[in-house]
Automatic annotation (TrEMBL):
Lineage: Bacteria, Pseudomonadati, Thermodesulfobacteriota, Syntrophobacteria, Syntrophobacterales
InterPro entries noted in UniProt: NADH-UbQ_OxRdtase_51kDa_CS, Nuo51_FMN-bd, Nuo51_FMN-bd_sf, Nuop51_4Fe4S-bd, Nuop51_4Fe4S-bd_sf, Thioredoxin-like_sf
A GO MF term: 4 iron, 4 sulfur cluster binding
Protein name per UniProt: NADH dehydrogenase
Organism of derivation: Desulforhabdus amnigena
Keyword set, alphabetical order: 4Fe-4S, Iron, Iron-sulfur, Metal-binding
Similarity-based family: Belongs to the complex I 51 kDa subunit family.
Keyword Repeat applies: no
Domain NADH-ubiquinone oxidoreductase 51kDa subunit iron-sulphur binding: from-to ranges: 450-495
Pfam families, alphabetized: 2Fe-2S_thioredx, Complex1_51K, NADH_4Fe-4S
Domain of life: Bacteria
Length: 550
């Protein structure tokens, strides 16, 4: 395919869509599918067929639309472009939806079926990475192309040198979305300059944090965006082979990525001489086997090479010595998802969002005690208060906000006193948490903080690969101490022991898992120490969660 053919495909797809009197976009993300989205889509198709509307009404699967807990969702796009979003659809409701939209005037629908898209849940978000999610059909390459897909790659291959692509990413200020927030452009420049005949690009879609599903959603909803981002990276750093490492628990994401790769290969958007240039790039999928530590880059590379997924010390960093000894660029799935718009609209445009040191937007999986849960994308620098009370609609049941857990097992809990802190990499770290990959769990006054810390520590204990002693034994000892505290069997000295172990793990563990495992304990000790004291000295759980044997 060349540039003109890409444009022709895009125009053909847009006119095809415009020819429909009405289009039903059914969310086909995992949360909506598990709520019965597949049957809803089927019922819509049947209702359309029953009225012989197939030529003028389209029913398609699309990706995640955001408020996942209200699924299955259906978006209806009328001929004049007007959109209506419906929640909690059922096959029975689907037939009435077809009547109301495809045969206007025949029936009216209850107002409560609709989700108002001018509500703060939507209006306070800025969608860059997720701009195609819920709009493109992840099973059709043409659908992505119709939204401008692959035009950034076509542009870069023809008009930009690899150095210029790297510079654009530097200018954007994008930082890695996998957790650590390392500047993406800097990493790409290091990779570009790394000597080596063979180089690799890897998309990290391991996503092991409990409750997080940003990367799964992007792979399921807009797989070509990830592929295009990877291809731009490969061109920029001089790689010809890429891997998408998908968590074993994500079969739908793996399937959609696989199909997208095959479709892109068939059209010459991946493979040999892409866009009739001299650039070659192949991508293969590798499936993880459920170990959290395999998200760590050195363990991930071992896993790709067919070895046991255990970390090794860095340096050498993957950009110096990665897969089979060759320089390897590893970025998170969401990081890659940001690249096509950055190349298309420019790094300066992207840097216009966010704060000085944390540019752009971030996707969060908003969960826990808020009225609206789901997948959100917000400009960095937004306050936690805006996320919880505007986007999330506040705490249900009139209860009080207690804390927000960010960064999963490597992160921490932010208390109510810091609700107005702008969310960026530095501020979260200063509060003893981390931005992490985007897990965001909101807790109300029924959560017990030592109990929350124990949950994450048990997770780290289970997921420790056992290679180094501080993490292998330290996590077990910390769980024992936390168990004593929450079980009402602790003595005051146990708090000191717990803090000593935190420091030991932080300073002597081999990889990030052990080094950050103490964070949930340290942050809850910092902001909610009185709860630990109450458990130990008074044998009392202020939140009423723990059984202290009284
Ligand atoms: C225990 C552990 C688990 C990790 N899991 C993930 C993961 O699931 N996804 C991810 O992108 N990065 C994960 N990381 C971070 C990666 O090692 C790496 O920094 C990241 O993929 C780089 O991409 P980025 O610069 O785009 O963020 C993990 C790190 C550690 C220590
Ligand atoms: S006994 Fe020691 S050396 Fe042997 S497997 Fe266990 S930790 Fe490793
Ligand atoms: S810190 Fe934990 S997960 Fe990392 S290498 Fe050591 S034992 Fe394995
Ligand atoms: S999966 Fe349907 S709205 Fe997120």
């Amino acid at each position: 395919m060349n540039r003109t053919e890409l444009q022709t495909m895009a125009e053909a797809e847009r006119s095809r869509q415009q020819a429909f009197r009405c289009r039903f976009l059914c969310c086909a993300g995992t949360p909506c599918l598990s709520a019965g989205g597949g049957a809803v889509q089927q019922a819509l198709k049947q209702a359309v067929a029953a009225r012989n509307f197939e030529a003028s009404v389209e029913v398609v699967g699309a990706g995640c639309m955001g408020p996942c807990s209200r699924g299955p969702l259906v978006r209806v796009i009328a001929e004049n472009g007007e959109e209506t979003l419906y929640e909690r659809m059922t096959p029975e409701k689907a037939a009435r939806l077809v009547e109301a939209h495809a045969a206007p005037g025949s029936t009216t629908l209850p107002e409560e079926w609709r989700i108002a898209e001018d509500s703060p849940f939507f209006s306070k978000q800025t969608k860059i990475v997720l701009s195609g999610s819920g709009r493109v059909d992840p099973e059709r390459l043409e659908s992505y192309v119709g939204e401008g897909g692959y035009s950034a790659l076509a542009h870069a291959l023809r008009e930009m040198t690899p150095e210029e692509v790297c510079e654009e990413v530097v200018r954007s200020g994008l930082r890695g979305r996998g957790g650590a927030g390392y500047p993406t452009g800097v990493k790409w420049n290091l990779m570009r300059k790394a000597p080596g005949e063979r180089k690799f690009v890897v998309a990290n879609g391991d996503e092991g944090d409990p409750g997080a599903y940003m990367d799964r959603t992007l792979m399921e909803s807009d797989p070509h965006r990830v592929l295009e981002g990877m291809a731009l990276a490969a061109y920029a750093v001089g790689a010809e082979q890429g891997y998408v490492y998908v968590r074993g628990e994500y079969p739908l994401a793996a399937q959609r990525m696989e199909r997208a790769i095959r479709a892109a290969e068939r059209r010459g958007l991946l493979g040999h001489r892409i866009f009739e240039s001299r650039f070659n790039f192949r991508i293969d999928i590798r499936i993880g086997a459920g170990a959290f530590v395999c998200g760590e880059e050195t363990a991930l590379m071992a896993s790709i090479m067919g070895r046991r997924g255990q970390p090794v010390p860095r340096p050498p960093y993957p950009a110096q010595r990665g897969l089979w000894g060759a320089p390897t660029l590893i970025n998170n799935v969401e990081t890659f998802g940001n690249i096509p718009p950055i190349i298309q609209r420019g790094g300066t445009w992207y840097a216009g969002y966010g704060t000085e040191k944390s540019r752009g937007t971030k996707v969060f999986a908003l969960a826990g005690k808020v009225s609206w849960t789901g997948l959100i994308e917000v400009p960095l620098g937004i306050t936690l208060r805006e996320i919880v009370f505007d986007i999330g609609g506040g705490i249900p049941g009139g209860r009080a906000f207690k804390a927000a857990q960010t960064g999963g097992p490597s992160g921490g809990c932010i208390p109510a006193a810091h609700l107005d802190t702008p969310m960026d990499y530095e501020n979260l770290q200063a509060l003893g948490s981390i931005m992490g990959s985007g897990g965001l769990i909101i807790m109300d006054d029924t959560s017990c903080m030592p109990d929350v810390a124990k949950f994450f520590m048990e997770f780290c204990m289970d997921e420790s690969c056992g290679k180094c002693t501080p993490c292998r034994s330290g996590t077990v000892q910390m769980v024992r101490l936390l168990d004593r505290i929450t079980g009402g069997r602790a003595v005051p000295e146990d708090l000191e022991r717990l803090e000593d172990l935190c420091m030991l793990l932080k300073e002597t563990s081999l990889c990030g898992l052990g080094q950050t495992a103490p964070n949930p304990v340290l942050s809850t000790l910092r902001h909610f120490r009185e709860e630990y004291e109450a458990h130990i000295r008074e044998r009392r759980c202020p939140a009423g969660v723990c059984d202290l044997g009284n």
